[in-house]
Every structure is written in C-alpha cells, then in structure tokens.
Amino acid sequence: MRYELTISLMRIGIISSLRAYDGVEKQTLPKRSKSTEIKQARKKWKKTYDKWIRDTKIKDKAPKTTPSKIPLKSIYDPTDIEDFDYLKKLGFPGIYPFTRGVYPTMYRGRPWTVRLLSGFGTGEDANERFKFLVKEGETGLNLALDSPTIYGFDADDPRMRGEVGQGGASISSIEALERIFKDLPIGRLSTSVVTHFLGLPTYAMYIAMADKQGIPRKNLRGTTQNDPLWLFHVGNPPLPLKPSVKLAVDLQEFCMKHTPKWYGINVSGYHIREAGSNAIQEAVFTLADATVFIDETLSRGWHIDDIAPQISFFMNAYNNLFEEIAKFRAMRRVWAKILKERYGAKKARSLIFKFHTQTGGSALTAQEPLNNIVRATIHSLAAIIGGTQSLHTDSYDEALGLPTEAAAKLALRTQHIIYHESGVPNVIDPLGGSYYVEWLTDQVEEEIWRYFDRIDKAGGMLAYTEAGIPRREISQTSYQTQLAIERGDIPIVGVNLFKSKIGDFEVCRVKLEQEDAEIDAVKRVRKNRNQKAVEETLGEFRKACQKGVNVTPYAIKAAKANVTNGEMYQVFWDVYGEWPHLD
Amino acid sequence: MRKKSKKIRILLSKVGVDVHDRGLKVIAAALRDAGMEVIYLGASRFQDEIVKSAEEEDVDAIGISSMEGTHHVKIPELMKELREKKIEVPVVCGGIIPMNEANDLKDKHGVYEVFSPGSTLKEIVECFRKCTYS
Lengths: 583, 134
Known about the structure:
The complex is a heterodimer of chains A (583) and B (134).
Chain A: H1 2-22, E1 28-29, H2 32-56, E2 84-85, H3 86-89, E3 113-114, E4 117-118, H4 123-135, E5 140-144, H5 147-150, H6 174-180, E6 190-194, H7 200-213, E7 222-224, H8 230-233, H9 241-258, E8 262-263, E9 265-268, H10 270-274, H11 279-298, H12 304-307, E10 311-317, H13 321-342, H14 348-351, E11 355-359, H15 371-385, E12 390-392, H16 405-421, H17 435-457, H18 461-466, H19 469-487, H20 512-528, H21 531-547, H22 552-560, H23 565-576
Parallel strand pairs in A: 3-12, 4-5, 5-6, 6-7, 7-8, 9-10, 10-11, 11-12
Antiparallel strand pairs in A: 1-2
Chain B: E1 9-14, H1 22-33, E2 37-42, H2 47-56, E3 61-66, H3 71-84, E4 91-95, H4 99-107, E5 113-115, H5 121-132
Parallel strand pairs in B: 1-2, 1-3, 3-4, 4-5
Helix pairs in contact in B: 2-3
C-alpha cells in the first residue's frame, strides 16, 4: 500500500518535471526562483551524499569523466540545463535541428534497416550467406569487400595469396559481383557496399550488372561507402589525397545525376573509432570530412540542396551508452546547423544527418567471447536510442575470426528482440528531456564546435588532413586508451577485470581452395573476354583520368567489358601516383 | 657485439594488405617510450618491402602483426624470404593467432615469439628487449 503510494507520487513528480520540458507554451524552464530552490535542495542532498560516504567509509569509485574526457557529476537536475530552450535545442523529430530524429515518424513508421555486414570466401559463399540472411528477416544487404579488392588488387595477383576472400568478398570483375548477387532481387533490396576506400570500380560493376538485368538505374537503391578520407586519418591509403577526393566526388556526382536513390558517399567515422579515437574525435572528423566532399562538389557548380541529401554517414556505437546516444543527437544538431548556416541549404532533406551504425568491433574481446553478445546488445541499444537509420550488430565471435552462421543469426535476432520485445523503439527519442542526456548532448556539441574552430583556423579539413593532425591525434588517443586499460583505469571484463585466459580457438577462415576458385574465376574472365573491348574501354578510362573529367561513365563501360578492379587501379596509380605511405 | 649506447632498432609492419594497424601503432609507441628506435612500415606492406627495409635499416628485430587470419600463409612466406636473404634477426608476431598455429610459426618457421590478445605492452617490450640482447 505504502509502496504503491510512493510509486504514484514518484510518477506525479516525473510527469510534472517532464511537463516542464514540453516547452511549447513555456520555452525556458525552470524559472529562476524554482532554480534557486532546486539548487538548495541539491546542496542538501550533496551533504547527505557526502555524509553517507563518510559514515559507510565507501569510496566513490565512478569515473570522473566520460571516455571522451567530459567531466561528470554524480547526478543531473534541471539547473544543469538552465535556460534550456526546448524548441531551439530539440523541437520535434523531422524538424530542425533534428536532435530528436531525422524523420517525423522514426521507428513508429518503419523499423531501422537490419543490415548485417557479410561477404567472404567465394562469390557463391557470399551469395549463400546473403540468401540466408534475407530469409531470416534481413531487410538490406551489406557487402564487405576483402582487402585485396579494397586496395585495388585482383584475386590472381600472387602477392595476394592468403588474403583473397578473407575479410570480405573478392570482386575482381563484374563476373564475381554477378555470382555474389545471383538470384537476389537487386531492383527491390537496397545494397550497401563497404568499399573502405574508393567505391568507383565496384559501383561501376554494380551499375553494369543492373543494366544487363534491365533494371532502370533510377530504381537502384543503396549506398557505396566511397569515403577515402578516413584512410588518411588511420590506415594506409593507396592513392594520394587530392585525387582520392576527386574520384570519390566523381562517383557522388554521377549518382546525383543517374542513381538518385543511391548514396554516392557514406562518410565513415566507424573506422576512425575502431582505430582508437574517442567519440568526439569520431564525430568531428566525420562531419569535417563530409565538408571536404561538399566543397569539392560545390566547386563543380552544383547547388548545396542537390548535394546534401545524397550524403549519408557510417558511425560506430561503443561502450558508454549515454555518451554514444549524446554523440548521435549532437551530430544531428551540428550537421543541421552546418548545412543551414555555413552552406545556406534550404530543403529539410539537406539538413538531416542520416547514418548507418555498426557496433564497436574493437570493443569485443577474445577472452570469454560470449560476453560480446551483451556488449553488442548495449551498442545496438545506443544506436537505436540514438536514432540510427540502419544497423549492423557484430557477432560475438568476431574478435576471433569471421562470424559463423549461428553467430550471425544471433546478431540478427538481437536486433529483432530489441525491436519487437523491448519497447525501446515505441517512443521517439525516449531520452529526450533527461537532464543528463540533454546536458551531455550539449557538452558533446560544444566540443565538436570547438574542434571545428581549430580545423577552420588551420584552413579547413583538407589542409588539416594533409598536415596529418587527425592521424596523430587518433594514434595518441589510442595509445593513451591502451595504457589506461593496462593500468586498469578502463575496466574490461575478462581482460583486466575477472581476468580470463583465451581458450584455444579455431580461426573461421576462408580455405586456400576457396581462394583458388576465385583465382581460377578471374583467370577464366581474362582468357574469355573480348581483348579489343578491354583495351578500348581501358584506354578511354585512362584518357578520362588524364583529362580530369568525371571518370564514372568510363568505369561503367570498362566494367561491362570485364575490365578488372586491379586494371582500373593500375590506371589510377599511373595517372595519380603511388601509395603515399603516411607513417 | 652491441655497444650499450646504441638504441635497439625494431621494424614494425603488417604483411599484405591487412589494414588493422591499431595494435601495431600502440606497440610502436610503447617501444619508443621504452627507448627503442622504431622503423614503422605500418599497414598494407608487401613482404619484399619488409625484407628490403630490414636490410637497409639494419634492424635488430622485426615485429609483425596479423589480424585477418592470414598469418598461416603470410608469415611463413616472410620467414622464408628473410632466411634466403640471410637476415637473421628475431621475428616477433602478434594478433589473432590460435595456439596451435602459433606453435607452428615458432617450431616450423622460426618465429621467436607469438603474442595473443590480452598480452600486455610490458610483456611485449620485454620480449623485444630480450630477443635483441646480445
């Protein structure tokens, strides 16, 4: 009885404080006098808190900052977000500044796209996994490429031995792509291709494949990652900076003209984070990278309202649930402001920060791998509460090798359970109005703007990238994080807490015989193709590269003539220069 | 015989086009902090580049990281080429390498040590110190 009364009183309290945030009638709440009262009450509580700690001799062991070093308090109340202007800061989903979501209905209209990254082994293997996932309820395809394809080498290059089809599908020519998508309805399903670097060769092959099937280009739905910039911040890009940006924008421009439902650039923060950045670095470098592509496209005479709707993002969801949610909310607000204020975009579609999320791969541990199911669930929640448009949940065995079918199915079901059972997606932006989350969203936003100022002062993101500053800063953060893990300051269950040894495991990997099958396939293509058509189309492609015109139509022609990914890349290296090797 | 004043020189690289170099960069920083000199080739390097660099830079040891499950092919190939070029420096590997395959790399191919996930920087630094001590 008494318990119920307390609960209902709490409810009244909660309801009245939320009503204060409704803000339609009253925009700035709470009032001064109320605020003084709250501050006094807070002081009183703090005394009790301190006394409690003193008396019980317990230590307040909670971290003093978020992982991005934003100082934390132990509790948040309305005075932490004083003068909070509801309509200016939040408004409503689908309405500027989009903090609460990019679409008016969010998941009440339709769920996020369940998009599991797959692809490894032979084209047939990738095809089989795709069909399995579609049968089990996947709603969009997400194709991973192997490293040789990403870096411009064909499967039959002897230097690639052992790497073909290993971390993704091998796509040396249109023939391989056709095997991967055999009997899959590419006119209906949307396909994302995680190209890591340039998207041009694989996009050209995809268009060539659709043309052959008679699917109108304007109906094709999908995304090509096609963001070369992250590889200048982390990793090792195979081409110099400026040509890389030029080629990325070539594809973007072609998409705007011919495949309007295909996102030509998917700006990636995911890899920046995986390489060890914190959430704020991930956010700021990703948004700043996007401005590089916009500036290049604008310089070709396009209007901002044509360009902006074609840009989407690829983000990471990591361990700290609230900081991740705040990151996504802040990024929506910052992006909308950049587009509106800096670029003068007018259309609502131009202002929205649409993003795919993948759960944090580097947060998974090889020790006690089943724990990763829990981690991936928390990451997925961060992405969903943060308002993602599509999601890949990592499989628990990915710290050890490629995901097995059973583990991939479990990852798929993780999303299904969150969507159908948890009630999380029922209310849009469910943490909106939380003192802590609103405060943290503001903090993340401020940090992003502060960083942006530095980038602007350094002459913009292209100059900043050329100077190697993001690269240096990310490595530093990564090293500091590792030192903190080893000191035990960042707890990781199974690693430095409840330590556990790694059991012996087998690497789920592609066998050399599967690799041989891909090698044979490319060799057959080389032997059977029309050599004259290869030489002609490749020659035209080279000329287009030399002239500086948009090379995409020439790449499509070459793809139709069975020109390989490696042959296209060789042209890039001849015309634009070799690997810059930034380390 | 090494003079005490000379810094230990370590070459760090990945073999092949594997891009996952986060761990390798962290190790580079740790070795530098421990007073060693690091020649960092980084991600996406072919074995001939590694061998050439090991020769030219006169390194005391080589560290190779493998994260994509390609170590069973790439590392034996590298070891073979190093032997052929008579570069006899210890090679230390790390990454996602199962125990039985790690033993193979050590016993059959002459790798000095293999570190698995969960190894500490201290252990790795010590290993480089030990294997270059003469």
